[in-house]
């Protein structure tokens, strides 16, 4: 009993601190405000036009472009940038590929463009068979006329790093391709020995090395007059994700919320009403244990909101729905425990014995049901779009926290108040439903 009393006091102090932080963090100018999605608070929409004129597999390139931009904006996948691609002119044959990027809560267009960043387009091209003739007739010919595409570009890049020439000490860029890129690089160097393989960045020629022999290890170097700082910046941008196709900003606009303040207020109101109804039901049906479960549920909400702030999790309409749904799911474990307690009390066991048996025997069902919910959330987060990821993330976090509050908080508080002796009144307070 003494042990549980100490733990109860510690938990109360812990959640009191979390609640204080939650209130404090809502002040203007703090570091931990709630993040809301584009559909709730508006933001900026940027439309980019992709140049796919030299790309054979356009669909694959656009899918990669979407993934790269999404990764650059949100490396952890929780701020829910609304990134999508669209094609126009499919009937006429003149495809106009576009990338649409929605950035929640950002109304400064210059800031939005900065978030996307200027990602370098890396290409490896072979010299045109008639390059000498072209230069004779046009000494200022563009790289597009001097070199032909090989299909090897930054989309195949696995990683980039800063290296230094052991002889001169000059900074160079070391590149390492993924499996497909390494195979393509090996094929190019095997079939074009003695030819120039130019390395271009954003259409500018960086170096024009001659292929001496096949390179089968999937590694290459970009040499040039880089300062260490320039090399470091270039490596950083390449590692963020080299674009498979060049993009140019076509249009930009600041948007109001599509659901806006009404949807946000409605969602919050629905959560509060649901919490009140759920609390009344728990107290009416499960009596004193139900009251403890309501306290645990309040702690669950506080802890969830604090975690949402600290990660941070962007709450879109879907994410808000996932959180509200998780509030109802958070009492599942308590219901299983209390129903199991009822069965033990029917066997004329003492309240203390029934409580211990209830937690012990309900644990396997609680574990299995929550694991299945967590697996579902993981699959949705892994395979879903940005909006679905928001729903899956809030749901998954909610399930994990609910296990903690149900097993730890409820159990600790109940073991503090469990009576050592049974009376008719005490058995009534710890029974449920219409049972006396």
From TrEMBL:
Location relative to the cell: Cell membrane
Q: Where in this chain does the record put each Protein translocase subunit SecDF P1 domain?
A: 64-127
Q: Does the keyword section mention Zinc-finger?
A: no
Q: Which GO terms describe its cellular component?
A: plasma membrane
Membrane topology per record = Multi-pass membrane protein
Q: Where is the SecDF P1 head subdomain domain?
A: 149-245
Q: Which residues form a coiled coil?
A: none
The identity of this protein, by name, is Protein translocase subunit SecD
Q: Which organism is this entry from? A: Candidatus Zambryskibacteria bacterium RIFOXYD2_FULL_43_10
